[in-house]
Design goal:
Elements (H helix, E strand, L loop, with lengths): L2 H14 L6 H15 L4 E8 L2 E8 L10 E2 L4 H8 L4 E2 L25 E9 L2 E10 L10 H21 L1 H19 L13 H13 L6 E4 L6 H10 L8 E5 L8 H6 E2 L11 E2 L1 H4 L4 E5 L6 H13 L1 E3 L6 E3 L3 E6 L3 H6 L5 H7 L2 E4 L9 H17 L3 E4 L1 H9 L5 H19 L6 E4 L1 H4 L24 H19 L4 H7 L4 H10 L16
Parallel strand pairs: 7-14, 7-15, 8-11, 11-14, 16-17
Antiparallel strand pairs: 1-2, 1-6, 2-3, 4-5, 5-6, 9-10, 12-13
Helix pairs in contact: 1-2, 1-4, 2-4, 5-6, 5-7, 13-15, 17-18
The structure holds adenosine-5'-triphosphate and magnesium ion.
Amino acid sequence: MTPQSMLAAMLPLVADLARQIPPSERYRRLLDAVRRLLPADAVALLRLDGDALVPLAVDGLAPDTLGRRFLVGQHPRLQALLQAAGPLRFAPDCGLPDPYDGLVEHVHGHLPVHDCMGCALRVQDRPWGLMTLDALALSRFDGIDMAALQSLADLAAATVAAAERMDDLALRAEDAQRRAEQYRRAAGSERARRLVGRSAAHRALLREIALVGPSDLTVLVGGETGVGKELVVQALHAASPRAGRPLVSLNCAALPETLVESELFGHVRGAFSGAVAERQGKFELADGGTLFLDEVGELPLAVQAKLLRVLQNGQLQRLGSDREHRVDVRLVAATNRELAAEVRAGRFRADLYHRLGAYPLQVPPLRERGRDVLLLAGSFLEEQRASLGLGNVRLDADAQQALLAHAWPGNVRELEHVLARAALRALGRHGQRPRVLSVCAGDLGLAAPGQPPAAAATPAVLPAGTVPLRQRVQAFERQAIEQALAGHAGNWAAAARALDMDRANLVRLARRLGLAVPARNGRSAPAG
Ligand SMILES: Nc1ncnc2c1ncn2[C@@H]1O[C@H](COP(=O)(O)OP(=O)(O)OP(=O)(O)O)[C@@H](O)[C@H]1O
Ligand SMILES: [Mg+2]
């Protein structure tokens, strides 16, 4: 790299700083310049988000890398780079695992990364993220002048600062998600997830969330099963001024009719036999925050009437109490049913439908989100990697093609389950725990068009000691259900009898396991 070549590569980037360019294009140009200047096989720009590094742009790495989150605590190389005072190059024998092993593109087999360096980026004197460079050959970076790399890093920092300022709206949505994450952590829920995606349909959804979230409108979130309605509701709450207050969920499908009033409104001691202590209802718990009515389309008509009464006068009364009080609650509801059709069929009250649907928000099915499938796959494989304790999990090119070609009737949930199974199958194929686990198309078990899914490929007996018990049990449950269905020509009632289960419970379990389930009204329906 001569001073002239460096100047020639950097000047256009400097000129770009003042232009209005989409952030993704800005980052692409930056990484392009870096690769022209330095002999790297892969470069990546990662932004620090809490305790994780999130790739914003990659060049030379598998596309699903963009959907991953690298927890800094789990990747010692990334941690070292973040802590170093300047650019850092790792000795070839340093022995620390490389986060990109197996993710470098156009490489057959698992050639590990051999020469690796990077530097931290700071924006307004605060750590912003990292730029990393990897080469597959030893000593590839021998001649690199570290001072020149530092200049490149400074320019990269200016680039990302410009991109951030110009992408105001996207930032607001992400800020909302960060708040949601903090809130979920504070609330102690098991997993904090963000909405992964970059497609036009996904971005339109984020824009709508940023628009309606801060208002006090009742939102009715619709969309097929497994599209992410629950995550959308969390993002709506996080984008509202109520974000610091509770988001309380009520699953309407699991609400016994006899308990509905005490669930919603609470009761005083002795209000009915069994009411041994005073209890707050969901409305009170959500005071100042958001009440989320999930699967609202499943509410029996009698309960719909009770709910409507409270919504109309805003007053509630604990069972057994004569005191009435007001609560300040924002309502958000979700359903995978076509509520308008349910109203026409007489299964849902028109007045409640209008009361809930002040702002209808439709979450698009996965098949309309293009290459988001790969980003989502990357984020789920990263979770698998962590839970299986592997160095890395990658997708073969044929697996990427198969994911892009599949129609995903069960949407994101189906994708999540397919990948969890695929990682287990891939692990089952290997005798020993590999450093980089490759998932191939066969592991996905996705049916070719017109063929039934490859149920038999699920290994019920997974290698002992390599897989957490819960996942082994789930794999077994899935296989038992698939076999029972296959043995009864797909008849759920018959399969449930064979398994000595109630049909509704079987369908609920199957949905939780990511299997295709029938709709309640008998229509053949999406998987989930
Ligand atoms: N954009 C996304 N990014 C990351 N994960 C997602 C996304 N969308 C959905 N998921 C994940 O997919 C799974 C299904 O999402 P969710 O439960 O929100 O679906 P749903 O629309 O409520 O489905 P149902 O109608 O069956 O209740 C969850 O594990 C969720 O975390
Ligand atoms: Mg849901």
